[in-house]
């Protein structure tokens, strides 16, 4: 199992964890995210997921608070791709952070979620 931290674009303070098997598919990650954020009423296929990484560095919770667009980020659009293949394996997302970094909002975010405008 891999624990991914996700944040909804345009929703400050929206970071939340999703735990999923690393061999699962991007499409199933979308379902897990929608299940976690049950307030959305739209087909799961309408979610857009982006790798929350610029270069080799994961964006932090503080950095994603002001994100309103996803230019320069990698779209995870292959629903049949295993999440471990698209940069979300346990090794890819493993971080050593302490409680002070987390409290300061410097914990990493792995996935940015764009919800449809109708949500």
Descriptive overview:
One of its GO terms (cellular component) is host cell. Keywords: Secreted. Residues 2-77 form the Crinkler effector protein N-terminal domain. It holds the Pfam family Crinkler. InterPro entries: Crinkler_N. There is one protein chain. The chain is of the alpha+beta class and 119 residues long. It has a single domain (2-105), classed as Ubiquitin-like (UB roll), CATH 3.10.20. The protein has helices at 26-36, 61-65, 90-93, 99-103, and strands at residues 2-8, 16-20, 48-51, 53-54, 57-60, 74-75, 108-109, 111-114. The strands form two sheets. It has a five-stranded mixed beta sheet with strand order 2-1-8-3-6, with helices on one face. It has a three-stranded antiparallel beta sheet with strand order 4-5-7. The longest helix is centred in the first third of the chain and has 11 residues, at 26-36. The protein starts with a strand and ends in a 5-residue tail after the last strand. The mean pLDDT is 85.
Task: Compile the SSE list and pairings.
Elements: E1 2-8, E2 16-20, H1 26-36, E3 48-51, E4 53-54, E5 57-60, H2 61-65, E6 74-75, H3 90-93, H4 99-103, E7 108-109, E8 111-114
Keywords: Secreted
Subcellular location: Host cell; Secreted
InterPro entries: Crinkler_N
Spatial strand order of the main sheet = 2-1-8-3-6
Rg computed from alpha carbons, rounded to a whole number of angstroms: 13 Å
How many beta-strand elements? 8
CATH topology: Ubiquitin-like (UB roll)
The proportion of residues forming helix, as a percent range, comes to 10-25%
Tally the helices: what do you get? 4
Largest sheet: 5 strands, mixed
Mass-distribution shape: globular
Overall pLDDT metric: 85
The CATH architecture assignment turns out to be Roll
Structural class label: alpha+beta
- Indicate the low-confidence ranges by residue numbers: none
């Amino acid at each position: 199992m891999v624990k991914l931290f996700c944040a909804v674009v345009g929703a400050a303070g929206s970071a939340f964890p999703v735990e999923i098997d690393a061999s699962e598919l991007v499409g199933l990650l979308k379902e897990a995210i929608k299940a976690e954020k049950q307030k959305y009423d739209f087909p799961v296929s309408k979610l857009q997921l982006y790798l929350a990484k610029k270069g080799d560095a994961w964006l932090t919770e503080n950095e994603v608070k002001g994100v309103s667009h996803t230019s320069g980020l990698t779209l995870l659009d292959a629903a049949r791709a295993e999440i471990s293949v698209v940069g979300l394996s346990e090794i890819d997302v493993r971080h050593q952070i302490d409680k002070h970094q987390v409290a300061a909002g410097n914990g990493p975010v792995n996935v940015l979620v764009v919800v449809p405008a109708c949500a």
